[in-house]
Amino acid sequence: xxxxxxxxxxxxxxxxxxxxxxxxxxxxxxxxxxxxxxxxxxxxxxxxxxxxxxxxxxxxxxxxxxxxxxxxxxxxxxxxxxxxxxxxxxxxxxxxxxxxxxxxxxxxxxxxxxxxxxxxxxxxxxxxxxxxxxxxxxxxxxxxxxxxxxxxxxxxxxxxxxxxxxxxxxxxxxxxxxxxxxxxxxxxxxxxxxxxxxxxxxxxxxxxxxxxxxxxxxxxxxxxxxxxxxxxxxxxxxxxxxxxxxxxxxxxxxxxxxxxxxxxxxxxxxx
Length: 271
Prior knowledge:
Structural class: mainly alpha
Number of strands: 0
Mean pLDDT: 86
Radius of gyration: 28 Å
Helix content: over 70%
Shape: rod-shaped
Number of helices: 10
Distance between the termini: 29 Å
């Protein structure tokens, strides 16, 4: 049991300080905005106050205004947390394929080979193996406790499955709520940047006292870049959130399947 706990501690469960991740992404976004997007080489006469060079996409993004680094922060946060979740969930799946692990554990249980199933858990590691291993330990304990009725023994095993699962699942979904929030927030910030850009565009035209179609079209294109940037951020967040949610659902299903098999094995082998 002690060795198992040491192995569990070494497993990568993710980054808990998501606020520091966002702060680092904000700092990086400011650097990119100032020195990459705002590079004088991207603008007419080498001055960021002028229009971007024709076809220069970086300069066009820079003209989106102060909202750009905010959207960049959201985009970089999604990318960073997606990488973090990828390694955390991959670690939670264990060393081998989950489907094969579940099949081997069920085969061992059907033969009544509890020690073999426990050995498979120690080899596999990960969240499913932790839950199954913990449940098998409880299996052995209740089997030796003759004071409990069969119903009480089964309830004790089921309770162990639920408790072990409750300890593992929060680590799997950690930081996913942030990605889910950015799904909406990215699009809204893009729209906010567009509205601000449109206001500035029409205000400058009104101040000029005329209808400069070139200036108006340039202002609108610069404003709409925020919408495109925000929608792209939201789309990436949606894909990331759904992908990792499906992975967590798969792990949860495996836990439920093996947990049910353990309970059924105990019920069938103890009349």
